Every structure is written in structure tokens, then in C-alpha cells.
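Protocol check, entry for the methods section draft. Step 1: assemble the input record (protein sequence plus ligand SMILES). Step 2: submit for complex structure prediction. Step 3: store the C-alpha cells unaltered in the notebook. Ligand used here: adenosine-5'-triphosphate. Step 1 record:
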Amino acid sequence: MPLLELQDIEKRFGGVTALRGGNLTVNAGEVHLLLGENGAGKSTLMKIVAGIVRRDAGKMLWNGSEVFLGSPSEAAAIGIAMVNQESLLAPHMTVAENIFLGREERNSFGWVNRRAITEKARHLIEQYGFPLQAEWRVDRLSPAGRQMVEICRAIQHGSSLLIFDEPTSSLSDSETRQVFRIVRDLKARNMGIIYITHRMDELRVIGDRVTVLRDGGAVHTGNLADIPTDQLIRHMVGREVAQIYQRDHLTPGAPLLEVRNVSVEASRLKNISLTLRQGEITGMAGLIGAGRTELCRAIFGVDPVDSGEILIEGKPARLTSPRDAVQSGIALVTEDRQISGLALRLPIGYNVTMANVERISNFGFLDLKSETARSAELGGKMRLKAASPAQLAGTLSGGNQQKVVIAKWLFRESRIFLFDEPTRGIDIGAKAEVFELMSELARAGAAILMVSSELPELMHVADRILVMRQGRLSGELPRGCTQEQIMKLAVMETAA
Ligand SMILES: Nc1ncnc2c1ncn2[C@@H]1O[C@H](COP(=O)(O)OP(=O)(O)OP(=O)(O)O)[C@@H](O)[C@H]1O
Ligand SMILES: [Mg+2]
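Step 3, stored output:
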């Protein structure tokens, strides 16, 4: 008997149909991949299983009997846990407190027994070998660290089904391998695992069976070994995506941005020098924590530079705030779309055309009609799945939020683009579009820095690859270099 069986699940949010024909069968001891485009309904279906969202119609069978789950704790009580796509952790609390949040042991006065939960957390962390400390505060952790806390939180009460919603989208290669090890470990303990991902390079490393959702319904299910990747992609996006990485490489033109001996003490950046040229996509690799995001923040004027200088088109620039950077033609597409990229409570259209820093410049005289048309065109190009530009950004699927962030910057027609993990969490069809847009920007004379932890895409898209390690640039590799060469530069010191 399957562990979990979903039959014809339906769900609507107002005018949006998120699910119709949501079918899925998961057995104990298997890793079941759930694939599909952004907005296909994957997270919604899983939230129904985890008691976060209630279904409108359809059946959910758990060990053969129908269940209705009214809350996550009801799901937890029967053995279902989910690691969420958006972190739901309490930032000011410790790792231990977050792991046991809502399930703490209390003494007779109702106080949380801090010592007991810290001890329990330490035990759990050791058991799985996570690089965490029970006493650390969660807001000091990297996205990877937070992800690990989410995983601890989900496994701590002995579940028999664990749902991972894009667990590795913010992780580096070595951290991803750690997650794989955990997943295999859980599988060996006969747990059922549902695993959502947009990373095509990890499907076959981790998955046993697969179900593809499209427009809220299951369109394929079967053994992963029986289906080639191009066919999977066709099921996902409903068309051929032949040329994901295709682009013409141009001869780089004039330097647009020069970073000279820049150091930022607070983020441990040391003596960084690099040049971004017109028509060139400069890739940047490195482990999480190597300083790639910090460098983008420094260039964008978020963190003050302690020494060194930044030149724009050959002239020294004073970038002391994002506003300076934006006015100098710099755009930043951030890794963390929720913190700096997107106003979740505001409509998509607003986010694209006038969000945040853009408002500061004189927008008053712009032709609103052409603005709306242009934002709709960008949305169409990127296959944004939304009811209308009036839909609130916070109600979009994770990947569609990322598309809005990108569209917002494309809309500004900046000349220097810093893409920090641009394809994190977006589907394969949209990835192809983003690469095409980046290529178009380069052709139009923009200079692009592309930070990515997905080595295959860096190797295909970038004209050359810079590698960072521990706050310094550790080397540069030409197009056509190997994954091993990149990794060597990324880890050299620790490996030696
Ligand atoms: N609370 C909500 N209010 C309105 N619409 C919603 C809400 N939650 C989800 N939706 C819509 O339901 C659809 C499915 O979203 P869902 O988050 O399940 O997609 P997904 O497959 O997880 O996509 P992604 O890969 O981008 O994470 C989308 O069109 C989304 O905008
Ligand atoms: Mg999702």
C-alpha cells in the first residue's frame, strides 16, 4: 500500500486555479521528484499534504485511509513534515529554539526549558553532521545554514513522509552534497520523500520516481530511469527547449565598471580587482561564504567600501548607497528576492515599474501607458504566470517572484548588471529566457557579472569565470575550463 495517495486534488485562490487533477502516489523508502514550471502548483499541492492549505476537492489517502488535515501540527501528528521554500524561521531566536519552536518542552510555569531543547538540538545536529551550533542565532546564518535548520525542524519528531521544496536552490555544491546525504539517509530509514527541484543536474543523482505537474495537473508519472531528460522537459514546459544555453560570444568592448583593490572589512573582502566590459558576461564562482554576494553589495553601494576605488566608464564613482548605484546605471538582481528584491505586499506591476530605489529618480514625466505595455511585454517574455499586473507579488509562486525581480531591473535599462544567482528557483523554460535576455543585454552593450553556484550554467553562459575564495579573488579561468579547475580555485586552501 502506498504511503500517500492524492487523487484529483483541486484548489483555487480567488480567480486563480492553482490545482486541478493533482494526482500523486508516494511509497515508503522512495525519493519522489515533483517537477513542473513556476506556478505549476507544486508548492500548493505539498502545502495541502502538509496541512498548510486546505483542498477544495479531491482525496488524500494516508496509509490507505482518507485524511483531512486542518493544520501543520495535525500533519506532524500523523508523520508528515515539510521543509518550506520560503524560510519560516524566527530570525532572532537560536537554532535550537527554531528547531523546536511550537513543540518546546515547558515546565510547570509554562516557561520553555532552554537547556533541554539546546541539548536535544545538539544531539540532532551531531547525528546528521550539520555544520551548525545549537546556540547560534538564526539571523546570523547563511541561507544554507537556515535551510539546515529547516531540515532539522522537519525531521526532529520522527516523520514518515518528508517534503523538500527546493532545498538546494540556495546551496553551494558541497552543501548540496550534504543535503543529498541526508536525503539518502532518511530514505534508508524507509521514509517517503517528496523532492521539488528546478536543478536538472540533480534529478538523477537523487530521484527514484518522478511526477510532472503542468497547469495544476499531473501530466506524467513513472520511474526516472525510464524517461530521458528532454522528454521530462517537454512534459514540464509543454514545448521543446532545445537551446538552453545558446548564445553568441562577442569580443568585449570598453570597460564599464572597474573595481580596483577594493576591501570591505565588515564582510572580509580583500583587495578585489576586476573589470566588467561591454558585451561580456563575466561569471563568478565560489563556495557559499566566499564573498560573492558581499562583493555585489559593495559595488551596489549597500556596504561601504573601506579602501580601493570603483570606476564607472573610466571615472571614479562614489557609490555610497543603492541610489547612487542605480543612478550610475548599475542594477542588482539579488539572491535573496524577499529581502532586497521585491515588495511582497504590492502588485506585480508596481514592483516592475517603480519599486524601491526607482521611485527616487524623477519618474513623474514617464508615459505610464508605454510603461505598462513594456512591463507586460517583459512579463510575457519571461512567461510570468500571474492573473494580472495587479496580483500581489507575495501571492506568486517562488520562481515567478524571481522573474518579477529580473523584469524590474530589465525595465530600468541599466548598463551594468550584477546578477547574484539569477536562476535560483526558476524553471528550465524561464532559465533559457533569462540567459537569452542576458545575452541580449550583452549584445546591446551592457556589462554583466553573473554569480552562480550552478557550475554547468556558469560554464556554458559566461565568457570567462572569476573564482572567489575567503573574500579574495583566487583566479580567473577562460571559457571552456573544467568543473574541476573551478572547484580547485574555490577550495584550494582548505583542501591543502
Ligand atoms: N495565496 C495565494 N493567493 C493567490 N494565488 C496563489 C496563492 N498561492 C499560490 N497561488 C497561485 O497558485 C499557482 C501555483 O502556485 P505554486 O506556488 O503552487 O507554484 P509552484 O509550482 O510551487 O511554482 P514555483 O516553482 O515557482 O515555486 C500560481 O499561479 C500562484 O500564483
Ligand atoms: Mg513553489
